[in-house]
Amino acid sequence: MDHPIVKLQNVTKRIGKRTIIDRLTLDLPLGEVFGFLGPNGSGKTTTIRMMVGLMSLTDGEITIGGYSVTKQYEKAIRHVGAIVENPEMYKYLTGYQNLIHYARMIPGITEHRVHEVVRLVGLEGRIHDKVKTYSLGMRQRLGVAQAILHKPQLLILDEPTNGLDPAGIRELRDYLRQLSKDEGIAVFVSSHLLSEMELMCDRVAIIQNGKLIDVRTIRGSQAETESLRVLIEVDRPQGAIEALLTIGQSAVIDGDNLIAIEADRESTAAINAALVAAGIKVYGIRTHVKSLEDQFLEVTGGERIG
Amino acid sequence: MGNFLQLVQNENMKIYQRPRTWIMAGILVASVLLISILWVSVGGRDTSMWEVAFIESSILFLLVTIFTVVIAAGGVAEEFTSGTIKLLLIRPWSRSKILLSKYISIIMFAVMLAVLLFASTILVNWVCFGINASPEVQPPIRGLNGISPVSYMLQYYALTLVSLVVTVTLAFMLSTVFRSGGLAIGFSLFLLLGVNSFVALIAMLEYKWIDYLLFIHLNLTQYLDGNPMREGMTLGYSLGVLGIYYAVFVALTWYIFNKRDVAA
């Protein structure tokens, strides 16, 4: 966190009277996969467009690697690779020609590197075919290829799993995680696929109606001490609640033969012992972890596009 | 940073990798062949090759203009409609330079087509009319000072190329402003063909402002034969007016392209 490669400060975008992005402030560190989550129309793509200089900022500032995107664009964008929305390529050129096209625009990309990237995304067999014959998944792979061609320090991918099959999604996910860990680059991924984000990202920023609502850590070690919601299946719920009251643990009935308690890992074992000692039959104990989806719906209030 | 020539190379690749470009070049050469062969089979060989070459050039230069306008109008607009503009712009190059590389490649295409037309008319008509021509057939004397046919042709091409560059720049501007290839092609060709057919009529009007109309000055070859469309107009004056229009087109194109939010 001490070396953020991207800094968004009070970024605001107004088109006419509508405020699309409202004072968004966000830091992205190197070596993390950072998710950008929000319902449709919340301003994800607009933010990404501003980060890569396709749109102007009404107010605020974005710096990448210390260079302002608005004032020193050529330096700021030098170490950025991106796909904005769909990976649109020149359909009348071959995949290879498309890559050569982008390779020519950045100094120091050798032909060897182009071949390396083609292998990496698994397009060796079709790279000399015209892009118009490619499937969506293959275009997505070509999109990733052009984005990593120059070994960027920041990789921005807008909905990267669109059109990929499950194997492709898994491959991409592993690859992105490996890139961020091994090469120490920052990966910024936007998506509406919550479960996908959960598997892919270290942290997730949640945006709604152009406002940053929350930044959550997904991979962390706080689970051990965190208080969880535990569901216990017993034969006599009422008796179980009374037995638990004697050890000072409050519980509520939650469905047929189920009681729910808030407890951490250690006390769950003690509670089980107390129930058994009170002669209550315990059929099952499970912890209920809130998924990102629950958290997301909780913070966005399940609201519709507004 | 980087090599600007590679950007031009990219734009050239995008022009010449498409079949339509070669179809255009093919149509141009085929038209030259067709006219010459028809001429030989109907009228025989008793004509100067320069006469035929000149007539073909004056007819077919319109094709060069139309084809170049099509390419120029597509230049920026197609990047927007296909969405590739996003991936093109997020490179360490300023928008002005990316636009310049496009413009240069289009001007190169215009010049290439003009050279192709010139070369094919000379070559085809030399074969059809020049080899073993009867010594009695004299090249026609055209122009003011009775200059040689070669230098007359070269002057003709030079003047027409100037107007072609202005027309192409206009189409390029419309392409950038409208971001729609169809609209840019349609509008440019309408201005070019539609207005040009009225231009002789308009030129007869007495109003002063007509002297500043672009279309009065687009046909520079009027000075080659020494009968300008409007009285008192000189080549220098026409070039001056075209220069001003050109500067305005270029300024507007670059200003808008730099300013615009890309939401394609």
UniProtKB/TrEMBL annotation, chain A:
Transmembrane segments: none
GO MF, one example: ATP binding
Signal sequence segment: none
SUPFAM superfamilies the UniProt entry points to: P-loop containing nucleoside triphosphate hydrolases
Entry keyword annotation includes Membrane: no
Pfam family, one: ABC_tran
InterPro entries given in the database record: AAA+_ATPase, ABC_transporter-like_ATP-bd, ABC_transporter-like_CS, P-loop_NTPase
Start and end residues of each ABC transporter domain: 6-234
Source organism superkingdom: Bacteria
Residue ranges that the Swiss-Prot or TrEMBL entry lists as coiled coil: none
Keywords: ATP-binding, Nucleotide-binding, Transport
Keyword Nucleus: no
Family: Belongs to the ABC transporter superfamily.
Annotated protein name in UniProt: ABC-2 type transport system ATP-binding protein
Species name: Paenibacillus prosopidis
Automatic annotation (TrEMBL), chain B:
Keywords on record: Membrane, Transmembrane, Transmembrane helix
One Pfam family in the UniProt entry: ABC2_membrane_4
Annotated transmembrane regions: 21-42, 54-77, 98-124, 154-174, 181-205, 235-257
Entry keyword annotation includes Ribosomal protein: no
Presence of the UniProt keyword Transmembrane helix in the record: yes
UniProt xrefs under PANTHER family: INTEGRAL MEMBRANE PROTEIN-RELATED, MEMBRANE PROTEIN
Protein name in UniProt: ABC-2 type transport system permease protein
Top-level taxonomic group: Bacteria
Taxon lineage: Bacteria, Bacillati, Bacillota, Bacilli, Bacillales
Organism of origin: Paenibacillus prosopidis
